[in-house]
Amino acid sequence: MDTREQQTRPAEAFDWRTEAEAALADFVTVARLAAYEVGPDDFSVEFHDAPHRPPSSMPVGKMALYGFHGRDGWLKIGIAGKQSQARYTSQHYNAGSAPSTLAASLLKDVSMAACTGFLPSSPGDWIRSSCHRMNVLVDAEHGRPLLALLEAFLHARLRPRYER
Questions:
Q1: Residue 161, Cβ neighbours under 10 Å: how many?
Q2: Domain coordinates in residue numbering, the chain
Q3: What is the chain's mean pLDDT, rounded?
């Protein structure tokens, strides 16, 4: 897997990256059991430590899985097909932009009221400043069912808080 880092990895980011890398390595076996001919090189993985900037676009010919990790674990893991630029780049930072966004989930979570720096008026600011982000890019030619399998596997393995 191609692992590109936005900046030098701080010690507290080690666990979330290691956990994700191990899960993605195991997913190759799961995909092969489901008759997908893929290997580690078929997935381009990007880790962005907090604070992070949302991606400005999804590369042409790619589809993506993305995940958000907060201080207490994985918060949300989702997918964006090759025609889903907004889902990949911006919707999760704005509670009203689409159904089932990270911002909307945070606003519904009463425990967020006690979270330092979280303002209900701007959940996207907190996501950008406090959450790490992982992007996994896959060639669209592999098809959406492979992407859906990856999402389901990572939901089961990483157990994001807002996907239960």
A1: 17
A2: 2-83+133-163
A3: 92
